[in-house]
Design brief:
four-stranded mixed beta sheet; two-stranded antiparallel ribbon; single chain; 6 strands; 12 helices; 62% helix; alpha/beta
Length: 349
């Protein structure tokens, strides 16, 4: 046991001195420092919404004008034709589109056949229900009183002589109550503490660096390098006197001696860049490192020739880089590529 421990420490020193391992360790530490030094960037959620108004009612035109100047996260703007609106939505210029048909106002105020507003969205549209709420709030602000008066006058109860005589005064009083209620502070008391106009939904984010995926790639690469060193030493007959089980232990020592420094560095790096519970991150790194050890150990059993392994190693590393999520989003891949990616440990880290 003492002999294997001595060999393990020798292999550990040897792996730390390898230029490739040193480069990977320096890159991880450098990314952690860079992540801490680079200030957060403010990202704006810009949600333009196209409006085509075919209704000539003055109040509807006022509603559209208020929407276009609204102090909200949605940026409403008018278009001249349906073709322009379709083009804006399909190209992504507009998050959603609204078409106000001709006669909408008169039909909405009275009880005639309704001509609803047409809403156009795509699968990429963000918060479409909130833009409808924004639209409805402006419409309600301008038309709620008119709709209430119109529906009361159309009611059978209004047909009585007594009510017809008193109804004008009732409707006038209703208008005063509505105006006081709308402009009052019983429900909302608006306090402006921004000192300016806030038209965008913004959030602060750090630079998107795939540190976790890169660390996972480095740990796997270190394990594969451990196999290469073992095969090279084995072909040089350094372990000729070792029995079968002892050879497997030596393979394991080669792999662990290469993976261990990367795992030790990965834990604080991820803690710095991701935050959260350090023990949880330590458990994730430990579990992933064990998976990489088993993965590399299986390859050392299958590929026993250094010459064959050196031909296979570039293929494995290329697959890990492309399908490991470092350069590309795996979720956007086809099913066949996802199945191949799931065969790599980097997929799960």
């Amino acid at each position: 046991m003492k002999l294997f421990l001595n060999r393990f420490f020798i292999l550990l020193k040897r792996s730390i001195r390898q230029p490739v391992n040193i480069a990977m360790l320096v890159i991880l530490v450098g990314l952690a420092i860079l992540y801490r030094q680079v200030p957060s960037s403010e990202k704006t959620l810009y949600l333009p919404v196209a409006i085509l108004s075919e209704d000539t009612d003055p109040n509807m035109q006022k509603t559209v004008e208020d929407l276009c100047h609204a102090n909200a996260i949605f940026h409403f703007y008018t278009v001249d034709s349906r073709e322009t609106m379709y083009e804006d939505i399909s190209s992504g210029k507009a998050n959603a589109g609204y078409v106000i048909p001709a006669g909408f106002t008169s039909n909405a105020i009275t009880s005639d056949t309704p001509t609803p507003i047409e809403v156009y969205t795509t699968q990429a549209s963000m918060l479409p229900s909130l833009s409808r709420d924004e639209f409805f709030s402006h419409f309600y602000r301008h038309f709620a009183l008119q709709i209430a008066k119109s529906r009361v006058q159309e009611s059978p109860v209004y047909a009585t002589d007594t009510l017809q005589k008193s109804m004008p005064a009732v409707l006038e009083e209703l208008g005063k109550i509505y105006e006081e209620f709308q402009n009052g502070t019983e429900i909302f008391r608006v306090e402006d503490s921004s000192g300016g106009i806030y038209n965008d939904l913004t959030r602060e984010e750090k630079v998107d660096i795939p540190v976790r995926k890169l660390a996972g790639l480095f740990i796997l690469t270190a394990g594969l390098i451990g196999i290469a060193t073992y095969l090279k030493d084995s072909e040089e007959r350094l372990y000729l006197r070792l029995r079968g089980s002892e050879r497997y232990v030596m393979r394991l020592l080669h792999i662990v001696s290469c993976i261990l420094p990367m795992s030790v560095i990965t834990w604080p790096v991820l803690w710095i860049t991701e935050g959260g519970n350090g023990l949880v991150i330590l458990g994730e790194v430990t579990l992933y490192s064990l998976v990489c050890v088993v993965y590399a150990l299986l390859f050392s059993v299958i590929l026993r020739s250094s010459a064959v392994y050196q031909k296979v190693l570039p293929i494995l590393l290329t697959m890990a880089i492309i399908l490991g999520g470092v350069l590309f989003d795996i979720s956007s891949f086809d099913r066949a590529f996802k199945i191949v990616a799931m065969c790599l440990p980097t997929y799960y880290f």
